[in-house]
């Protein structure tokens, strides 16, 4: 089987992130300590390779799927932990909540699961596949190779009522965001670093239209002074011409939307944050200082991303006899 690393540099980055995370595993919780970096070493040795290939194959025909996979793992881990509960179809499930209506990438996870069920039936959890796929999406976009411990099990409960109290809305204040992150065991630095996911992906016009208002003649006007005027006009030109702002999308990062880099933070310094939650990071001393550091040091961002992403990937994990290993990611057994 071919090596999952395409270069010596990638292999070095992977080993470095693994060494960084080892002490973190021992400090977080006993459940997390049950995860391991070679969990499928004997039961399904090609598991991570299969997930990586599935992600690469899907992105070759639809590059936008990479950003969708990254967003998908956030919406899973922040609600009931990283247990793949967001993947479950059905009335009143997390996936049915309007807050998750624009999520994508589900087919990629299911495709990887189908292949794994052929080679290793009943072995690899959807929760692990989802985290690995998001990790691989970042790598495919030019980001760091992150060593991810595996051994998560899938949740058996998925309830829409759990979504809104746990995900970040686009009009949240810094205090609200800090509180939600703290409830997940994540710091202020983690908040700013993980917000860097907005360096890729796209958003529907209706997710940031509160930054504008309509005048009596029906024309849009900027009401958010924290937004650069020329950037605001670009957004207006893109969205006001659409008959349906729920289907028109704009890139989260207007400069390098298909590259995982620190351009997001440079955009914030230029007052070009797409969401109010982005701009808010520049209005609070606790977060602005971190934004400035990351905007001026891409290597620092990538190193901190590795640490923060790994911390997020172990929120509320189920291990041992908890949960189950689903046969299909879209339904509980």
Structure description:
- By secondary structure, the chain is mainly α.
- Helices cover 45% and strands 4% of the residues.
- The chain has 13 helices and four strands.
- It has helices spanning 8-28, 30-33, 47-61, 65-77, 106-119, 126-140, 174-183, 188-195, 229-239, 263-269, 276-280, 285-296, 298-312; strands at residues 202-204, 212-214, 220-222, 249-251.
- The strands form two sheets. The chain has a two-stranded antiparallel ribbon. Strands 2-3 form a two-stranded antiparallel sheet.
- α4 packs across α6 and α5 (106-119) crosses α6 (126-140).
- The chain is globular and about 60 Å long.
- The two termini are 31 Å apart.
- 42% of the residues are buried.
Our count of helices gives 13
Are there runs of 5+ residues with pLDDT below 50, and where? Answer: 1-7
The termini sit apart by 31 Å
Instruction: Examine the coordinates and then state which fold CATH places here, giving the name of the CATH topology of the largest domain.
Output: Peroxidase, domain 1
What's the CATH class of the largest domain, please? Answer: Mainly Alpha
Task: Quickly count the domains.
Answer: 2
Give a quick account of the main beta sheet: strands, pairing sense, barrel closure.
2 strands, antiparallel
Mass-distribution shape: globular
Helix and strand composition category: mainly alpha
Query: What is the averaged pLDDT score?
Result: 89
Helix proportion of residues, in percent?
Answer: 40-55%
The proportion of residues in beta strands is under 5%
Query: Radius of gyration from the CA trace?
Result: 20 Å
Reading the helices and strands in chain order gives: HHHHHHHHEEEHEHHHH
Number of E strands = 4
GO molecular function: heme binding; lactoperoxidase activity; metal ion binding; peroxidase activity
InterPro entries: Haem_peroxidase (IPR002016), Haem_peroxidase_sf (IPR010255), Peroxidase_pln (IPR000823), Peroxidases_heam-ligand_BS (IPR019793), Secretory_peroxidase (IPR033905)
Organism: Brassica napus (Rape)
Signal peptide: 1-33
């Amino acid at each position: 089987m071919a090596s999952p690393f395409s270069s010596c540099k990638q292999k070095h980055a992977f080993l470095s992130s693994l060494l960084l995370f080892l002490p973190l595993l021992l400090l977080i919780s006993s459940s997390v300590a049950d995860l391991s970096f070679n969990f499928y070493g004997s039961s399904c040795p090609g598991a991570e390779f299969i997930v990586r290939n599935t992600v690469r194959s899907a992105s070759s025909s639809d590059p936008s799927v990479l950003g969708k996979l990254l967003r998908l793992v956030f919406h899973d881990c922040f609600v009931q932990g990283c247990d793949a509960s967001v993947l479950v179809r059905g009335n009143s499930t997390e996936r049915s909540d309007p807050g998750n209506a624009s999520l994508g990438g589900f087919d990629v996870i299911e495709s990887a699961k189908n292949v794994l069920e052929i080679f290793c039936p009943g072995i690899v959890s959807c929760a692990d596949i989802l985290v690995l796929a998001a990790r691989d999406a970042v790598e495919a976009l030019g980001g760091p190779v992150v060593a991810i411990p595996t051994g998560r099990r899938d949740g058996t409960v998925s309830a829409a009522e759990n979504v809104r109290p746990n995900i970040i809305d686009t009009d949240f204040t810094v205090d609200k965001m800090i509180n939600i992150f703290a409830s997940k065991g994540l710091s202020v630095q983690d908040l700013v670093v993980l917000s860097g996911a907005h360096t890729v992906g796209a958003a529907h016009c209706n997710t940031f239209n509160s930054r504008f208002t309509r005048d009596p003649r029906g024309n849009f006007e900027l009401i958010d002074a924290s937004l650069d005027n020329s950037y605001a006009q670009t957004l207006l030109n893109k969205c006001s011409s659409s008959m349906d702002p729920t289907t028109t999308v704009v890139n989260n990062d207007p400069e390098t939307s298909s590259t995982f880099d620190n351009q997001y933070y440079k955009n914030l310094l230029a007052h070009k944050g797409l969401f109010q939650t982005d701009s808010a990071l520049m209005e609070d001393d606790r977060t602005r200082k971190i934004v400035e550091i990351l905007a001026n040091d891409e290597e620092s961002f990538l190193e901190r991303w590795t640490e923060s992403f790994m911390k997020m990937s172990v929120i509320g994990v189920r291990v041992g006899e908890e949960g189950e290993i689903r046969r299909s990611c879209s339904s509980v057994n």
